[in-house]
Amino acid sequence: MAGLSSPGIGSGLDVTGIVTGLVQSEQAPFESRIASQEQTATSKITAFGSLVSAVSAFEDAAKKLNDATNFELNKISPTSNEFFSTSVTSEAAPSSFKVEVVSIAQGQKITSGAYADDDTVGSGTMSLTVNGSTLDLTLDGTETLRDLKDKINEAEGNPGITASIVTDNDGQHLVFTSDDIGLDNAITIAVTDDDGNDADALGLSKFAFSGTDTADMLQTQEPKDAEILIDNFLRVTQSSNLFTDAIEGVSINVKKANDVGDNNAITVSQDTSAVGEALAEFASSYNTFLETSVSLGRVNSESQIVGKLVGESLLRSLTSQVKNILSGSESNGGLSLAALGITTTREGLLDVDETVLKSGVDNNFEGVKNLFVGDDSIMGKLTETLEGYTGGDGLIQVKINSYKTTLDRLDEERANFAEKMTALENRLFSQFNAMDLLVGQLNSTGSYLTAQLDSLPGVVKQN
């Protein structure tokens, strides 16, 4: 008898349903176990991720207080007034000075005589010099004032001069302006006139200038250096309006000259506010860390909420180490966080008394620095401890990596199990199909025998 083309057609059984049910009965406990383990691993990864974020922010705040440069910041007063603006670096020593702005540096302007729009300027060679650099221009006698302006401005070897045309009631004037300020950038113009006379005030000779006004070239703005007088005694002169080397660590940008004999005081002092702000930031980041660790490791019997890291020894160890370090005090003088107005609440959080903190920092700045700066300080020990938990090789990341490995293993188990279930399904179908075929054959044989018996003489068929 030929094989059956549809499972169950021979026996009348739902072979497909039976096989599917048997396979699912094998899969169900496996999937339940795998899903539970995956959920646990994923939950742990998320929880440790939250923890490492809080710890990293806390570590950054501790490092900031452990950095000596944050205790070497200065402030300066005033930062700006009518006569100058100031800035200060950590190189400056706390001190006060009187500063008089004697003069402001400025560039030079030289203005030519008047020309009509189509007047030519003459022929020959014009040499323009600024601070040792010279530009030589050759003119053929066809150039107008505008042409000369363009030749100067567009020349590759321009030594630092901008030419402009200004028109007044008399006509057009060519204005030569030095690009940089200060006496060193004064402009000199020498000419070699094709008429053979460089001093006849005709042709190109009209543009000659060597620092003294002529009938055709007037200095409309003299070049000046900037000059300041410090403490009515020390005189500093330079071509720039920004003084960076007069007082070590202090920059003074002059804006306006004082009246003769007048001056303004500047004061450099330690900037203790930055340390106070860093301490407040530290307390805030610690509180975030503690709240995160408590939330992750707590069992709330009332709400039946269980922290995702309950039972994790790493969490208990980290919290314990941090609390032990913060409860310590600096050996020289016994200064502690509590003495600076940073105390612990009943919930274990840090509370900052701004008044006590400011007073403690202002009155014992060196003591505060010693408490926080250095490998053996509170912040030094804390930073070293936290570094062991954060980073690519930290204990928290090791935990995260172990749970990621668990997820990879579970994926591999699921793939292997899927192959086993496929093989089981194929085997069951094969077995049930064979049975179905046999039952079909037996049913067919039975029907045949029944028909033959029914056709025998003397056989009475009973309905």
Automatic annotation (TrEMBL):
<dbReference type="Pfam" id="PF07196">
    <property type="entry name" value="Flagellin_IN"/>
</dbReference>
<keyword id="KW-0975">Bacterial flagellum</keyword>
<dbReference type="InterPro" id="IPR010809">
    <property type="entry name" value="FliD_C"/>
</dbReference>
<dbReference type="InterPro" id="IPR040026">
    <property type="entry name" value="FliD"/>
</dbReference>
<feature type="domain" description="Flagellar hook-associated protein 2 C-terminal">
    <location>
        <begin position="224"/>
        <end position="444"/>
    </location>
</feature>
<protein>
    <recommendedName>
        <fullName>Flagellar hook-associated protein 2</fullName>
    </recommendedName>
</protein>
<dbReference type="GO" id="GO:0007155">
    <property type="term" value="P:cell adhesion"/>
</dbReference>
<feature type="coiled-coil region">
    <location>
        <begin position="400"/>
        <end position="427"/>
    </location>
</feature>
<keyword id="KW-0969">Cilium</keyword>
<dbReference type="GO" id="GO:0009421">
    <property type="term" value="C:bacterial-type flagellum filament cap"/>
</dbReference>
<keyword id="KW-0175">Coiled coil</keyword>
<comment type="similarity">
    <text>Belongs to the FliD family.</text>
</comment>
<feature type="domain" description="Flagellar hook-associated protein 2 N-terminal">
    <location>
        <begin position="11"/>
        <end position="108"/>
    </location>
</feature>
<keyword id="KW-0964">Secreted</keyword>
<dbReference type="Pfam" id="PF07195">
    <property type="entry name" value="FliD_C"/>
</dbReference>
<comment type="function">
    <text>Required for morphogenesis and for the elongation of the flagellar filament by facilitating polymerization of the flagellin monomers at the tip of growing filament. Forms a capping structure, which prevents flagellin subunits (transported through the central channel of the flagellum) from leaking out without polymerization at the distal end.</text>
</comment>
<dbReference type="GO" id="GO:0009424">
    <property type="term" value="C:bacterial-type flagellum hook"/>
</dbReference>
<dbReference type="InterPro" id="IPR010810">
    <property type="entry name" value="Flagellin_hook_IN_motif"/>
</dbReference>
<keyword id="KW-0966">Cell projection</keyword>
<comment type="subunit">
    <text>Homopentamer.</text>
</comment>
<dbReference type="GO" id="GO:0071973">
    <property type="term" value="P:bacterial-type flagellum-dependent cell motility"/>
</dbReference>
<dbReference type="Pfam" id="PF02465">
    <property type="entry name" value="FliD_N"/>
</dbReference>
<dbReference type="InterPro" id="IPR003481">
    <property type="entry name" value="FliD_N"/>
</dbReference>
<keyword id="KW-0282">Flagellum</keyword>
<dbReference type="GO" id="GO:0005576">
    <property type="term" value="C:extracellular region"/>
</dbReference>
